[in-house]
Amino acid sequence: MRSTWLFTTTTPLLLVTGLMFPGLMFTDAHAAETKTLTVYTYESFTSEWGPGPKIAESFQKTCDCKLTYVSVADGVELLTRLKLEGPASKADVVVGLDTNLVAEAKATGFFAPHGLDTSALKVPGGFSDDSFVPYDYGHFAFVYDTQTLKTPPKSLKELIEGDARDKIVIEDPRTSTPGLGLLLWVKSVYGDKSAEAWSKLKDRILTVTPGWSEAYGLFTKGEAPMVLSYTTSPAYHMVAENSDRYQAADFAEGHYIQIEVAGMTKAARDPDLARAFLAFLDGPEAQTILPTTNWMMPVATPSEPLPEAFGKLVQPKTTFLMSPEEVAANRKAWIDEWLAAMSRN
């Protein structure tokens, strides 16, 4: 688990200076009145290349407030942290859970109804919930390096039964939403034979990382020719690097989809401000920022057209998605099954 980073500032020196120089007292008093919105999310969201900084800058212009991020390695850890903190959590808004965690998150009792009309938002298969709003989506895929892997797998079956010398990097389903997504993808395709599938696949796994950032970093450093990521990931390399070196493998069985969601907590210090941020996430400005920083698909119409690279991406013919209730009822047992299969000699 990575360290938790708190992006905020404190001004004890200014307080003392204000006492010494009355002319500065108004400045500090005004700062003290500024509302603060604390948003819990995952590390890649708040990174300098992620959507967090731009979204914070844009939202702060609309609210006369300060947005503070608290980040953990990945989405599943968000839920774990909220459970550990309980009602004392400082989170006003949580960004980065997904539909696989919605039922479990609601069961904590921490989240409040958002009261927003989300009927115009569009995700494959649809999604509507009174506590969580979707803000982007993407299909999981194995991204490969065309310079080192000339013949990528064309199906999940080929991946599982392929050459163990062609290593892959995956994320941990106990801490990472992509890792959990792969677990559910395998379960969707293999059903009660999933443990057998994992026993075959484990010899290809170079390492299991806590989150997506670590996994993708190892991949781009050349540690392995394939990584669990998204069908949208190649768009980053096409747009930012003008390179088509990295591509997503199109699997014949289909791909599991991730719909990322955000919600406001019952403990939010300013519910109206929290609700305004959720609405902003699904507005045209944030929906324009997300595709080229989080490299996922928007759920609403952005203010600018998507880059041409998005039209070159794999378009899954079949989409897998389990209900939040099914995932909540089985997540622990399926993770235990995965652990047992991965440790089997």
Distance between the first and last residues' Cα: 26 Å
CATH superfamily of the largest domain: Periplasmic binding protein-like II
Class computed from helices, strands and strand pairing: alpha/beta
Count of individual helical segments: 14
Report the CATH topology name of the largest domain.
D-Maltodextrin-Binding Protein, domain 2
Low-confidence stretches: 1-31
The biggest beta sheet, please? 12 strands, mixed
Envelope shape: globular
CATH architecture of the largest domain: 3-Layer(aba) Sandwich
Features:
345 residues; alpha/beta; D-Maltodextrin-Binding Protein, domain 2; 12-stranded mixed β-sheet; 14 helices; 12 strands; disordered N terminus
The gist of it:
This protein is of the alpha/beta class. It folds into 2 domains: 5-137 and 258-310, D-Maltodextrin-Binding Protein, domain 2; 138-257 and 316-343, Periplasmic binding protein-like II (D-Maltodextrin-Binding Protein, domain 2, 3-Layer(aba) Sandwich), CATH 3.40.190. The protein has 14 helices and 12 strands.
